[in-house]
Design goal:
By secondary structure, the chain is of the alpha/beta class. The chain has one domain: Rossmann fold. Strands 1, 2, 3, 4, 5, 6 and 7 form a seven-stranded mixed sheet that branches. The protein is globular, with a radius of gyration of 16 Å.
Amino acid sequence: MYLSGSKFNDILMKTFILVRHTKSSWKDSKLQDIDRPLKKNKIDDAIGVAAQLRTLQFQPQLIISSPAIRAYDTAVIFAKALSYATDKIKIDKSIYESSEQELLKAIHELDNNLVQVMFFGHNPCFENFLQNYTDSKIESLPTTGTVWLELETDSWKLSKRNRAIQRHYLYPKMLRLFDDVA
Protein backbone atom coordinates (compact mmCIF):
# COMPACT_ATOMS: atom_id res chain seq x y z
CA MET A 1 0.00 0.00 0.00
CA TYR A 2 1.24 3.50 -0.81
CA LEU A 3 -0.88 5.69 1.45
CA SER A 4 2.11 6.81 3.50
CA GLY A 5 4.25 7.29 0.40
CA SER A 6 6.41 4.95 -1.57
CA LYS A 7 10.15 5.06 -1.06
CA PHE A 8 12.74 4.74 -3.76
CA ASN A 9 16.34 5.00 -2.54
CA ASP A 10 15.05 6.67 0.67
CA ILE A 11 13.38 9.51 -1.24
CA LEU A 12 9.69 10.05 -0.68
CA MET A 13 7.79 9.67 -3.96
CA LYS A 14 4.71 11.36 -5.33
CA THR A 15 2.76 9.22 -7.77
CA PHE A 16 0.24 10.44 -10.30
CA ILE A 17 -1.51 8.85 -13.20
CA LEU A 18 -2.78 10.54 -16.33
CA VAL A 19 -5.67 8.80 -18.08
CA ARG A 20 -6.92 10.03 -21.41
CA HIS A 21 -10.68 9.51 -21.58
CA THR A 22 -12.07 6.43 -23.27
CA LYS A 23 -13.19 6.81 -26.89
CA SER A 24 -16.29 8.95 -27.16
CA SER A 25 -19.31 8.76 -29.41
CA TRP A 26 -19.91 11.23 -32.22
CA LYS A 27 -23.32 9.68 -32.93
CA ASP A 28 -25.36 12.73 -31.87
CA SER A 29 -23.98 15.67 -33.84
CA LYS A 30 -26.17 18.08 -31.86
CA LEU A 31 -24.24 17.48 -28.65
CA GLN A 32 -21.62 19.98 -27.58
CA ASP A 33 -18.10 18.58 -27.24
CA ILE A 34 -18.24 18.58 -23.44
CA ASP A 35 -21.43 16.47 -23.51
CA ARG A 36 -20.23 13.63 -25.73
CA PRO A 37 -20.67 10.24 -23.98
CA LEU A 38 -18.43 7.21 -24.14
CA LYS A 39 -18.74 4.97 -27.16
CA LYS A 40 -20.64 1.96 -25.81
CA ASN A 41 -18.45 -0.64 -27.51
CA LYS A 42 -15.32 0.96 -25.97
CA ILE A 43 -16.39 0.88 -22.31
CA ASP A 44 -14.66 -2.50 -21.98
CA ASP A 45 -11.39 -0.72 -22.82
CA ALA A 46 -11.71 1.34 -19.63
CA ILE A 47 -12.75 -1.68 -17.58
CA GLY A 48 -9.75 -3.68 -18.82
CA VAL A 49 -7.15 -0.96 -18.26
CA ALA A 50 -8.60 -0.16 -14.82
CA ALA A 51 -8.45 -3.84 -13.87
CA GLN A 52 -4.81 -3.99 -14.96
CA LEU A 53 -4.05 -0.88 -12.91
CA ARG A 54 -5.68 -2.53 -9.88
CA THR A 55 -3.23 -5.44 -10.21
CA LEU A 56 -0.41 -2.89 -9.86
CA GLN A 57 -1.96 -1.99 -6.47
CA PHE A 58 -2.50 1.68 -7.20
CA GLN A 59 -4.84 3.22 -4.62
CA PRO A 60 -5.65 6.85 -5.39
CA GLN A 61 -6.18 9.28 -2.58
CA LEU A 62 -7.71 11.74 -5.04
CA ILE A 63 -9.24 11.44 -8.50
CA ILE A 64 -9.59 14.62 -10.55
CA SER A 65 -11.56 14.72 -13.79
CA SER A 66 -12.29 17.15 -16.55
CA PRO A 67 -15.98 18.08 -16.56
CA ALA A 68 -16.43 16.49 -20.00
CA ILE A 69 -18.88 13.57 -19.78
CA ARG A 70 -16.45 11.19 -21.51
CA ALA A 71 -13.65 12.00 -19.03
CA TYR A 72 -15.88 11.84 -15.97
CA ASP A 73 -17.48 8.55 -17.04
CA THR A 74 -14.00 7.08 -17.59
CA ALA A 75 -13.03 8.29 -14.10
CA VAL A 76 -16.09 6.56 -12.63
CA ILE A 77 -15.14 3.25 -14.26
CA PHE A 78 -11.60 3.48 -12.86
CA ALA A 79 -12.82 4.64 -9.44
CA LYS A 80 -15.06 1.59 -9.11
CA ALA A 81 -12.23 -0.76 -10.13
CA LEU A 82 -9.88 0.88 -7.61
CA SER A 83 -12.42 0.98 -4.74
CA TYR A 84 -12.53 4.78 -4.75
CA ALA A 85 -15.85 6.41 -3.85
CA THR A 86 -17.28 7.89 -7.05
CA ASP A 87 -18.88 10.77 -5.13
CA LYS A 88 -15.36 11.87 -4.13
CA ILE A 89 -14.24 12.45 -7.74
CA LYS A 90 -13.25 16.10 -8.03
CA ILE A 91 -14.28 17.95 -11.19
CA ASP A 92 -11.70 20.50 -12.34
CA LYS A 93 -12.79 22.79 -15.17
CA SER A 94 -9.19 23.86 -15.73
CA ILE A 95 -8.28 20.50 -17.29
CA TYR A 96 -10.92 20.66 -20.02
CA GLU A 97 -9.60 22.22 -23.24
CA SER A 98 -6.46 23.10 -21.32
CA SER A 99 -2.77 23.41 -21.92
CA GLU A 100 0.02 21.49 -20.23
CA GLN A 101 0.73 24.63 -18.16
CA GLU A 102 -2.81 24.50 -16.75
CA LEU A 103 -2.34 20.83 -15.88
CA LEU A 104 1.01 21.66 -14.29
CA LYS A 105 -0.71 24.37 -12.22
CA ALA A 106 -3.34 21.83 -11.05
CA ILE A 107 -0.54 19.45 -10.02
CA HIS A 108 1.34 22.22 -8.18
CA GLU A 109 -1.84 23.04 -6.24
CA LEU A 110 -2.17 19.50 -4.86
CA ASP A 111 -1.91 19.12 -1.10
CA ASN A 112 1.56 17.74 -0.28
CA ASN A 113 -0.05 15.24 2.11
CA LEU A 114 -1.43 13.45 -0.96
CA VAL A 115 0.81 10.75 -2.40
CA GLN A 116 -1.27 9.08 -5.14
CA VAL A 117 -3.49 11.09 -7.49
CA MET A 118 -5.19 10.43 -10.82
CA PHE A 119 -6.15 12.89 -13.55
CA PHE A 120 -8.71 12.16 -16.28
CA GLY A 121 -8.56 14.45 -19.26
CA HIS A 122 -7.70 15.03 -22.88
CA ASN A 123 -5.18 15.42 -25.64
CA PRO A 124 -3.33 17.44 -26.72
CA CYS A 125 -2.84 18.59 -23.11
CA PHE A 126 -1.75 15.18 -21.76
CA GLU A 127 0.57 14.44 -24.70
CA ASN A 128 2.20 17.88 -24.43
CA PHE A 129 2.59 17.46 -20.68
CA LEU A 130 4.26 14.07 -21.14
CA GLN A 131 6.69 15.51 -23.68
CA ASN A 132 7.59 18.58 -21.63
CA TYR A 133 7.53 17.46 -17.98
CA THR A 134 8.39 13.75 -17.96
CA ASP A 135 11.02 11.34 -19.21
CA SER A 136 8.29 9.54 -21.18
CA LYS A 137 8.88 8.70 -24.83
CA ILE A 138 5.13 8.53 -25.53
CA GLU A 139 4.35 10.73 -28.51
CA SER A 140 0.73 9.73 -29.04
CA LEU A 141 -1.49 8.89 -26.07
CA PRO A 142 -4.44 6.81 -27.31
CA THR A 143 -7.91 6.89 -25.78
CA THR A 144 -7.87 5.16 -22.39
CA GLY A 145 -4.07 5.50 -22.46
CA THR A 146 -2.89 5.43 -18.84
CA VAL A 147 0.53 6.65 -17.74
CA TRP A 148 1.85 6.08 -14.19
CA LEU A 149 4.35 8.81 -13.26
CA GLU A 150 6.47 9.42 -10.18
CA LEU A 151 8.26 12.40 -8.72
CA GLU A 152 11.31 11.79 -6.53
CA THR A 153 10.31 14.47 -4.07
CA ASP A 154 8.01 15.14 -1.15
CA SER A 155 6.19 17.99 -2.94
CA TRP A 156 4.17 18.32 -6.12
CA LYS A 157 6.56 20.88 -7.61
CA LEU A 158 7.76 19.55 -10.91
CA SER A 159 9.35 21.49 -13.71
CA LYS A 160 11.19 20.89 -16.95
CA ARG A 161 14.26 20.19 -14.79
CA ASN A 162 12.54 18.18 -12.06
CA ARG A 163 10.77 15.85 -14.46
CA ALA A 164 8.40 13.03 -13.59
CA ILE A 165 9.56 9.47 -14.25
CA GLN A 166 7.34 7.08 -16.21
CA ARG A 167 6.84 3.77 -14.36
CA HIS A 168 3.99 2.15 -16.30
CA TYR A 169 2.09 2.69 -19.52
CA LEU A 170 -1.15 0.85 -20.22
CA TYR A 171 -3.51 1.12 -23.18
CA PRO A 172 -6.31 -1.04 -24.61
CA LYS A 173 -4.50 -2.35 -27.67
CA MET A 174 -1.64 -3.61 -25.46
CA LEU A 175 -4.12 -5.55 -23.32
CA ARG A 176 -5.66 -7.11 -26.43
CA LEU A 177 -2.18 -8.22 -27.53
CA PHE A 178 -1.74 -9.95 -24.16
CA ASP A 179 -5.10 -11.70 -24.66
CA ASP A 180 -3.95 -12.97 -28.07
CA VAL A 181 -0.77 -14.45 -26.56
CA ALA A 182 -2.54 -16.18 -23.64
